[in-house]
Amino acid sequence: MTLRAIFSALLFLLAAPLLAQSEEFLPLTAPVELAQDQPDIAIGELIFRGGVEIAPDKAQIGGISGLEWHDGQLYAVTDDGRWLVLTPENVQGRLVDVSQVTIGPLLDERGRKLGGKERGDAEGITRLASGEWLVSFEQEHRIWRYPAIGAAAAGSEDHAAALVAGAEANSGIETIAAYAGGLFACGEWIDPARPNCLRITPQGTQAFALAAPEGIAEAGGVPTDAACAEDGTCYVLLRSYRRGEGNRAAIVEMAPDNTPETLAVLTPPLTLDNFEGLAFREEAGRKFLYVISDDNFNNCDGNERPDCQRTLLMKFEIKGNAPPPGAPVVVSAAPATKSTARPGTRPFPEAASVNVVLTTELGDITIALETERAPVTAANFLRYVDEKRFDGTVFYRAMRLDREPRPNGLLQGGTQFDPKRILPGIPHEPTSQTGLTHTHGALSMAMGEPGSANGDFSIMIEDQTGLDADPAASDPVWRNGYAVFGYVVDGMDVVAAIHASEIDPDKGEGWMKGEILAKPVKIISVRRAPAE
């Protein structure tokens, strides 16, 4: 895993929804860069925004051949007849981890798994405005409609059938992408005499030949996936492979009138693999592309071989409204909603607790300290309260997570290692011992390692349950997790208001840069609440 290793303070993960006939688990990942020592390298019109390598893991993840962004997650299909949902995690705009994978079989019209390569070779996936999904297959060339991921197929989409009439088994509809009022599809070939792409609208079907751009054309580049913006601008991923040289990739922007513009050509020695999936995401005027590679079920998996491949997921930003390469990325604040203002939920409401009121410049926050479930950590916090060590400290850090629902992340405050305020570190109480969890409104101790927590704490905004202990993990950081010791029972609207305060993009170091408040919010006092 990568995400917890990045931070010395609190980290985060999020569970994906469990879908029918599926398996859900935390994947093994490792960080990758497009170019060594150039974290935000710009190639053409694209800026690299982070990447990870995903291990095959127990589900034998691999063969990913199509990708789609929807509702904060990446949906994919594989060429052995499966679907995946990946939950990407971003910090300051950079992809740093995949916190959850849900995987299951694609089904036929009768709800049966697709058996064999001929029927299960899924190559493209897209979501329609109706909520239906389209999945394209080669070998047995077709496009099937699915009312939901994990459901049985409910019909076919036949408008693109002419594109692959007479095509070879391994040269089918490799790319499929939907947008408002249209559908875009391409086959896996380049031939000026034979159109390889279609744009299908209510006005009719337009076939055209998309040429590979210079830099990949000479290596035999062909379309492998596409994704479209709502206005009908589509992005096409092309890839090639030559023995002795390796992989190349290119991304071409197609205007609604099918005029192409090459955004970037990626060639060695950049970190590349067999990129076959592309997803588009637009937010707050900024545009992002995700690419993922197909390892052909020949994954290196810790055993590097000349012919092995990897499952790489990379994120790029299209220039335009993007911050320049190397500039700190500040995730925009999101206004609090009624949902954000809801109090935290104590998992054991009958357990003994002590309420304290944290008074800030922006209002009061009432916290129920779990003195029975987390006695050591709660007692430590109460000692800081009773000795007035929190008086005059600040909330100084707002980690804003780049995912729904918004706002999302955590707010951090406390003594900031002030030698006049901090007390010795305390024994670690993992959530596997206390039964508490990092849900919305939970308070958790900041620490570098178990036993080092003292006077800094964070408040969760939405669930960050990946911070919980995982006793089965081999990594001691994952195994121990972070210590929950209380829940906000009133004042989450104040927490959200502080979280939305202005960020100074130049403050902080490392991963905290872009998360430090320009004007920290003062904690005036913290006192035990009067007994009822």
TrEMBL record:
SUPFAM superfamilies: Cyclophilin-like
InterPro entries in alphabetical order: Cyclophilin-like_dom_sf, Cyclophilin-type_PPIase_dom, E_coli_cyclophilin_A-like, Phytase-like_dom
CDD domains the UniProt entry points to: cyclophilin
This protein's record includes keyword Isomerase: yes
PPIase cyclophilin-type domain: residues covered: 360-531
EC number: 5.2.1.8
Enzyme class: isomerase
Extent of the signal sequence: 1-20
Cross-referenced Gene3D superfamilies: Cyclophilin-like (2.40.100.10)
GO molecular function, one term: peptidyl-prolyl cis-trans isomerase activity
Keywords, alphabetical: Isomerase, Rotamase, Signal
Keyword match Membrane: no
PANTHER family assigned: PEPTIDYL-PROLYL CIS-TRANS ISOMERASE CYP38, CHLOROPLASTIC (PTHR43246)
Protein name in the entry: peptidylprolyl isomerase
Organism: Erythrobacter fulvus
